[in-house]
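Quick check before the chapter quiz. The format below is the same one you will see on the exam, so make sure you can read both the input and the output lines.
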Amino acid sequence: MIPAGSIVAILGGQRLFELWLSRRNLRLALAEGGRERFPERFWPIALMHGLFLPALWLESRRRPVRLDGVQLALLASLLSLELCRLSCIASLGRRWNVRIVTVPGSPLVRRGPYRWLRHPNYLIVSLEFLLIPLLLGAPRSLAIFFPANLWLLRGRIKLEERALAEAAAQPA
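Here is the expected output.
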């Protein structure tokens, strides 16, 4: 058995590292003439992500994750997703960010998972919002956060596509 809080703590640590990395990458992009686009649309997503892990912890804190066949499959799937997430971050390198940031003249990344999908990280995040509550036995968190994430990402992808198209049209 694994305490649910341990899984939530590991995921929380990962998210804190990603926020640090994103902040660093934002500074680098701005120094290269980059521009944050639609900053007002960042906060609803940040709020949802900020509430997701505490909600999971509150709902699952008294239930350890039993390592039966189903839970092992969910845990293995989650670990695979996290490796894919790291691949997305590594593929984008300094361009990876939790905000919508464009640097005029920068080519689109077409390596790693971006060879096959336009927004692989968003697929991974969506699957996380499905798998983590299932793994932790948190049906309320699943019912609230999974559809909320899909709804927010739908708008986010439209804005990101618009920002990328506009950046591509600008001279370097």
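If your answer matched, good. The first strand starts at residue 35 and ends at 37.
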